[in-house]
Structures are given as C-alpha cells and as structure tokens.
C-alpha cells in the first residue's frame, strides 16, 4: 500500500469545523446544574468543575464529539460524559445503548432523536452503564492524541474491556494500544484509507500517521517543514551523503535517470556482512555504516555494557533494535535514511514507509510464516546501492529487482517471471520438484500436528460448547499442503454439520464471539481475529505450541466434503497430486489476485474431467449411490460407497508425464472463453453463462436443479456472473470460487498460461 500516491480528499475534513454542530454552547449556571450522572442530587458548589464538557485533543473532539451536538444530547440524557460518538459522516455509536447508527448522513436531528428515545433514557439511569462509560472516557483521555484518533473503532464492553468494531475482538484496556499497533488492526485501517470513499471513519490520516505512514498532504507539509530545518542538520546530512557516494563510487542520485543507467549500474550487497555474529555492531546494516563511527561500546561498573553515541551525547541500551532506531529515527544529527532509501519485502510483497515501518516489519516475531520451508534459509536483507532500495528476499528476489526499471510494463507482461523459468528449466528439474512437493504434502498428512491441534481446539472450545466436534479440512488434509499451510477447521457446536442449525449470519457472529471467550484466557492461542464479512465468517488464531495458524468456521460441513472430494480425486488419478502442486507453485510466482489455491485445484480437476481422466461430480454420485446422498444445507455431496478400484474402471489413467499434462493445461486455459462459459466440475464440462440469466435459469442442465430449488428458498443466493472468471464450486452451485476476479487478472492469467505452454514446449 502506497499512501503517498493515494488521493488525499480526507485532508479537507480534518481541519474544518462542522458548521452543523458549531453553535454556541450555553454556559449559564442554571443549565450546568441540570447535568448529572443519572440521579437528581443537588450539585455541590465545589464540584462545579466536573460539569464542564470533557476535553479531548482539540482536533479529535471537534470531529468525534462536536461540542454543539454534545450539548444538545446532554440536555436530554443529563450525563456529563459523552454518550454518543460520531465515528464518521455516515456512522455513529451510542456508548450506553451499545447500538450502531448508520445512514447516508448522520444528522444532528437523528442523534438527538436517539437521545430522546426510551432505550437511551433507560440506559442513562443504569449505574453500571455509567461506570462503564466513565471508565471508557478516562482511558482515552489519558492517551496520546494519535492514539485517541483510534477510539472511533472501540466501544465499551465491560470494565475493563472494550470491543474493537473494526476487528470484532474483545480487548482488555491494558492491551488496547498493543491491539492498535497489531498487523490486523493496522491492515483494516489501511484498507479503509484505500477505499474510494475515505470518509467512512474520521481521522484516518492521523491514524496512519501513528504507523509512520505518510499521506500525500503530510508529505507536502513535511516538504515545507524540511525547508525550515536548521543549518546544522543540513550540513551534517550533506556531508555524510557526500562521503557515502564517494566511498561507493556511485554518483549522487538524480531526480530522474534513464533505464539504461539504472540497469547498467545496479550494485547489490548484503545489508549485514556477518549475520552469524552476536555482536550488535555487526548487525548494523551497511546503509548505516557512516553512522557506526559515532558509536562505541562502554562498560558499566556492574559488568553490563551500553552503546555510546558521541554525535548525540547519549548512552543507549546494547540492543540492536534500539541502536538502529536511534540512528534512523531518534536524532536529527544523524542522516535521514527515509529520504534516501526505499524498503521492499519481496516475501510479503510489501513496500514499507521508512526505517520505522521497516524495523517493525523485520522485528515481528512471526514474520514470513507462509514462506516455503526450502526458501527460508536463503532469504536475507540486501541493499541496492544504485537505486537505494533495501530488499528482503533471496537471489530470486534480486533477479526480479534487476530488470524492474529496465523494461516497460508491456515488455514485462510478455515475459515469464524468473521463478517460473527456474521451475520449468528442464523436464528433469520439473519432475524432481513435483516429487519433492508430493513428499512434503505426504509428510504433512502423516505428522500428528493436525490431529493434536484439533484435539486441543476441541478441548478449549468445550468451555463454551460442551458437545462440540471439530473437523479439519483444506490443503493440509487433501494432500496439497505444506508445513506452512494454515489449518482449516469446521466447528460443529451441535447438529450443524448438515446445515440444520445456526446458519444465519447473526448466528455465526454469536458463535465466533463465544469462541473468542473460550480462547481469551488460554495462552496457547494468540492473534485472534474475526472475519465476519466473509461469505462464511471465520475466526483466525495462532496455536503457539505447534506454531500453526488456524481458521475456524462455524457454518456447516460442506467444506469438509469439498476436501474429501479433492483427496478422492488425487487417489483416483495418481498424476493429479503432482499436477495440482506444480500449478499451485506456478501460481505463487504469477501472483494472481482473487484466485486461491482451491480454485486452481478445481480448475485442474475440471481439465482432467474434460479429458476423461476423472469423473464429474454428478457421475460419481450416480456410481456410488444416488439414492443414499449426503445433503448439506440443501446441496448434494457424495456418499463414497464403492471401492477406489471399482471407480477406476470408469476413468483413463493419464499415460504421459506431468510436464506434458502441465503444457496441455496451460494451452487449454490460455484459449478458454471466460466471457462465455463457466467452469463446472459438477458436470465435467463447460456451461454457457447465458443459461444462468435467461428464463430465470430454467434452461440450465437438469443436473443443476438443486440450484433452482435454492433460488426459491428463504435465503436465495444467485451465482455471481458479473465476475470476469467463473469457476463453480463442485457442490455449492451458487458459489463462484473466482467471483472477485477482474478483467486484468484474466488477461494476465491467460497470457502466463500461453507463455508457460510455449516454454514447456521449447524445453
């Protein structure tokens, strides 16, 4: 996310006063004496000072608690603390009724109307509610202004906890600041900023400032402030920069340079020359080497040591993070590296804003968990001294960096990523990699981690759900996973597997909240995060003893049946497992948006179905026993009654090697008409898109009758045809697995398929 390039329309709202709420506030003693905290006692003259409105940071108060509006509300609820919070132009929250108010525009009339309502009046008389409200405001009043800006996301929950409406998590007061700095909360704030309508919440730009992320307007302000910096700082900075360029024999960076210059002079070095060393000084990166001369280690009488900075006349703790932050952030006497370097983590595909963001990213305890195990030993931090870029990655990352400025976007789109070229270097290498991926996937299937984690999850959840049962599914179970794959789990709290109970979205959120309570005091689980807006709401968490990320769902068992089907296909057709694993690895290099591993696996299965190497879902159901079907939430799954050997009689075993199969797969989808057809594993053939729209779907194949029945139900869901790519779920026929794919993604996918097929044919 590059906030520097984002539109800064929110800037205008921060400094402007809201005229609707800016009327003068009456301050007569008679009116002040009407304010109380829920009872009608006479106000002592010595306590008058407590009756004035609470004072937050001026900018925060003007947006979140506009004085004119707050006075109008106080006239009805008679509470000295602010009871209604304006979160944004279209959002408000009542802090005592615990209700959210949304609309096209939150008006003064709407909020005062709420304050006059019976529910609000009743809540204002509850001592417990008022104590909770007072605790809430006391907490935020004692925070720094930038922290205060985040209160638009927090609601009183109980003493001493709050509920984060953004992350749907219950947070103890002592952990609120840590929660604000968590990756989950930060990511949500950044997403809100990147939305077209950034006015969903107030003060987002200031919230980003807390993370060291600068918006366009802030950069302009910084530029103006920079011109007013003192002469000493400028001279020190220029002197150090001049020496850096002299030592490295690289001319000073100009504002613009030709692509030939950039590609011809790239000089990449390791940031840290001795990573195995335990000495803090050896871990100061090369870009800070000119600052090392100011640092010396000084022993203390107690035998410990500190790092002394002669430039700033200060002693620092002998800690790498503290020393690096001092050089890059704390002292104006040191060179401002933020103005020289760009920072890119190739593993996470993230550009960080300056040394602060980079340091925070690097010192995360669980960073890069999803990286392939074989790749982890090879990654480190590099610096390109030519274009002043810090890169975290491996040699493959550097290969991607080198041609970046030398080729146009059009030229790059007509070339395969270097990772794909290495993957398809030769038939022998490809077959070996396929065998290696299969071995890893089989190891994941056999190690006890999944079983142990499921047992522990079940044990923890029984605090809230006495008879719960957990069912693992996903890539770790189907045979296409790695050790770094998440563990997907369906939690059946009772009679839920077949979709008979708790299927409403509100039921899902309630179950997730109860699950959060079950894990809250258990130190084996951390990083809990609810994703309630997903098609199937999930609870994400990390199981510490096995270092395993888990996704818990509470809807029904159809995902478990999907996994059974995928695993069954791998057992039926031996080449399917290396085939899908290689396509999965291929997809990790081309970085397609909104196409996940399961969607790619379904496309692989579909291609095998089309060519007779696997059976369609409908054919499998009929062979096993069409009269004894497993029905989940109205969708027919498969009851596996026949042996594998019996089913194998109805398919062809693929006769060639996996490289040939890959080439055929890429050729097929490079020419696939996604504008006209839907990938349908139910039938094992394409279905015309138009059949879903014309005649209310009545012209669809008869095998899709379940879809039409579902459309007539209480909660119908239409198959999403507006997507530029349609891949239908094998069982849930209303689910388009690629519904969020855009036209550019399809074009890129088909182009990569075409280039990959040519590359395989050539080799």
From TrEMBL:
Domain of life assignment: Eukaryota
Where in the numbering of this chain does the Poly(A) RNA polymerase mitochondrial-like central palm domain appear?
452-568
Per UniProt, the ranges with Basic and acidic residues bias are 217-238
Q: Does the keyword Magnesium apply?
A: yes
Its keywords, alphabetically, are: Magnesium, Metal-binding, Transferase
Q: What is the lineage of its organism?
A: Eukaryota, Metazoa, Ecdysozoa, Arthropoda, Hexapoda
What cofactor does this protein call for? Mg(2+); Mn(2+)
In Swiss-Prot or TrEMBL terms, this protein is called: Uncharacterized protein LOC115875817 isoform X2
Ranges of Polar residues composition bias in the record:
1-16, 25-37
Annotated PAP-associated domain ranges read 660-735
Which GO BP terms, alphabetically? RNA 3'-end processing
Q: Which PANTHER family match?
A: POLY A POLYMERASE CID PAP -RELATED (PTHR12271), TERMINAL URIDYLYLTRANSFERASE TAILOR (PTHR12271:SF66)
UniProt-annotated stretches for the region Disordered:
1-40, 217-261
């Amino acid at each position: 996310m590059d906030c520097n390039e984002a539109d800064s329309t929110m800037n205008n709202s921060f400094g402007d006063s809201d005229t609707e709420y800016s009327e003068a506030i009456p301050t007569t003693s008679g009116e002040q004496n009407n304010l109380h905290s829920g009872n009608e006692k006479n106000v002592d003259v010595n306590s008058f000072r407590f009756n004035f409105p609470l004072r937050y940071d001026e900018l925060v108060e003007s947006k979140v608690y506009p004085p004119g509006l707050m006075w109008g509300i106080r006239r009805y609820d008679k509470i000295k603390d602010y009871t209604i919070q304006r979160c944004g132009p279209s959002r408000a929250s009542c802090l005592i009724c615990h209700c959210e108010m949304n609309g096209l525009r939150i008006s003064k009339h709407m909020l005062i109307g709420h304050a006059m309502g019976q529910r609000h009046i009743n809540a204002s008389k509850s001592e417990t509610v008022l104590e909770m409200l007072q605790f809430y405001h006391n907490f935020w009043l004692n925070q720094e202004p930038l922290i205060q800006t985040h209160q638009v996301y927090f609601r009183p929950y109980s003493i001493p906890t709050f509920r984060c409406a953004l992350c749907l998590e219950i947070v103890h007061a002592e952990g609120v600041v840590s929660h604000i700095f968590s990756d989950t909360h930060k990511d949500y704030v950044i997403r809100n900023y990147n939305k077209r309508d950034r006015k969903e919440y107030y003060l987002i730009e200031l919230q980003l400032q807390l993370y060291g992320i600068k918006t366009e307007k802030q950069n302009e302000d910084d530029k103006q402030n920079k011109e007013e910096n003192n002469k000493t700082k400028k001279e020190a900075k220029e002197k150090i920069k001049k020496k850096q360029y002299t030592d490295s024999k690289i001319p000073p960076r100009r504002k613009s340079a030709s692509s030939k210059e950039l590609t011809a002079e790239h000089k990449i070095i390791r940031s840290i020359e001795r990573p195995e060393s335990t000495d803090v000084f050896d871990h100061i990166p090369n870009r800070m080497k000119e600052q090392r001369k100011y640092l010396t280690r000084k022993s203390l009488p107690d035998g410990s040591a500190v790092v002394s900075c002669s430039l700033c006349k200060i002693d620092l703790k002998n800690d790498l993070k503290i020393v690096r932050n001092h050089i890059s952030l704390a002292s104006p006497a040191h060179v401002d590296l933020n103005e020289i370097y760009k920072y890119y983590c190739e593993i996470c595909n993230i550009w960080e804003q300056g040394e602060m963001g980079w340091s925070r990213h690097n010192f995360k305890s669980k960073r890069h968990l999803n990286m392939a195990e074989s790749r982890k030993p090879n990654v480190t931090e590099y610096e390109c001294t030519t274009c002043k870029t810090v890169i975290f990655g491996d040699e493959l990352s550097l290969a991607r960096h080198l041609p970046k400025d030398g080729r146009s976007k059009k030229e790059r789109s007509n070339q395969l990523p270097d990772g794909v070229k290495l993957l398809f270097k030769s038939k022998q290498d490809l077959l070996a990699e396929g065998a290696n991926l299969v071995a890893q996937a089989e190891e994941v299937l056999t190690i006890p981690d999944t079983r142990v984690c499921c047992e522990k999850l079940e044990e923890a959840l029984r605090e809230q759900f006495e008879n719960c049962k957990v069912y693992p599914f996903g890539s770790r179970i189907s045979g296409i996973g790695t050790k770094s794959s998440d563990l997907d789990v369906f939690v059946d709290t009772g009679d839920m597997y077949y979709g008979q109970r708790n299927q409403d979205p509100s039921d899902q959120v309630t179950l997730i909240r109860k699950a959060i309570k079950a894990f809250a005091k258990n130190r084996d689980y951390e990083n809990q995060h609810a994703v309630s807006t997903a098609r199937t709401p999930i609870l994400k968490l990390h199981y510490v003893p096995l270092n395993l990320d888990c996704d818990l769902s509470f809807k029904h068992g159809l995902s478990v049946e999907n996994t059974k089907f995928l695993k069954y296909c791998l057992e039926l057709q031996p080449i399917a497992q290396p085939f899908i694993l290689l396509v999965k690895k291929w997809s990790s290099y081309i970085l397609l948006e909104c196409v996940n591993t399961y969607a790619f696996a379904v496309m692989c299965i579909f291609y095998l179905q089309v060519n007779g190497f696997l059976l369609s879902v409908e054919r499998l159901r009929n062979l096993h026993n069409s009269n004894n079907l497993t029905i989940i939430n109205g969708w027919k799954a498969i009851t596996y009654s026949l042996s594998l050997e019996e089913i194998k009689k109805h398919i062809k075993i693929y006769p060639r090697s996996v490289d040939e199969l890959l080439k055929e797969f890429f050729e097929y989808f490079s020419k696939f008409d996604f504008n006209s057809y839907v990938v349908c594993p139910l039938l094992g053939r394409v279905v015309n898109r138009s059949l879903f729209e014309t005649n209310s779907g009545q012209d669809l194949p008869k095998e899709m009758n379940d879809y039409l029945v579902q459309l007539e139900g209480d909660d119908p869901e239409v198959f999403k045809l507006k997507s530029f790519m349609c891949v239908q779920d094998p069982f849930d026929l209303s689910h388009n697995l690629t519904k969020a794919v855009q036209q550019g993604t399809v074009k890129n996918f088909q182009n990569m398929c075409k280039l990959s097929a040519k590359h395989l044919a050539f080799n």
